[in-house]
Amino acid sequence: MKLVAIVGTNSDRSTNRKLLQFMAKHFKDQADIEVLEIKDIPAFNEPEDRKAPAEMVTFSEKLVAADGVIIATPEYNHSIPAPLKSILEWISYTSRALINKPTMVVGASLGTLGSSRAQAHLRQILDAPELKARVMPGNEFLLGHSEQAFDASGQLVYEDKVAELDEDFTEFLTFVKMTNQLVAEHQLNTEQKRQFSWETAAE
């Protein structure tokens, strides 16, 4: 299974990046996870020609090709960082690459709440008609006190959180398979309806 994981911040010292890098290594036998950065993509500016910059085109192509998406967000003032919101604006305005895409939301923060309010806000945004991601329900991975959560090799040291992440990721893989199957069946049924004609049916 091919997944992409979005670092939802442009901070060079982000523990959300460490979380996704840990996941890519920890789950390498279950999925190929490519960690995507957003820090080099220009801020959204609503271009008149509705064309995204080259960096954003490449980014969107990777989303489209992936079986599923993981987004890791910190929490800034009870919400997601501006650079992550900018990326989502680019996607909704141009490629719409997240429509029907199975998506897992995770987050890390230096405090105790583990980006819970930002994750709730992100789920609302991803439900917008131009994004319409298929976000895994009933699942919230919150990594608090994240500055102390990783050792020098990038290993997540909180054993209870590793166990929780293992369970959440297993559920996500099932969610990806089921969602993509349902979407494929829906698209097939829609295409068959488009091609239906009474003349053919009467033969």
TrEMBL record:
Key words, A-Z: Oxidoreductase
EC numbers on record: 1.7.1.6
Record-annotated NADPH-dependent FMN reductase-like domain positions: 1-147
Name of the protein in its database record: NADPH-dependent FMN reductase
GO CC term (a single one): cytosol
GO molecular function, one term: azobenzene reductase (NADP+) activity
Gene3D superfamilies found in the cross-reference section: 3.40.50.360
A Pfam entry, by short name: FMN_red
InterPro entries associated with the record: Flavoprotein-like_sf (IPR029039), FMN_Rdtase-like_dom (IPR005025), NAD(P)H-dep_reductase (IPR050712)
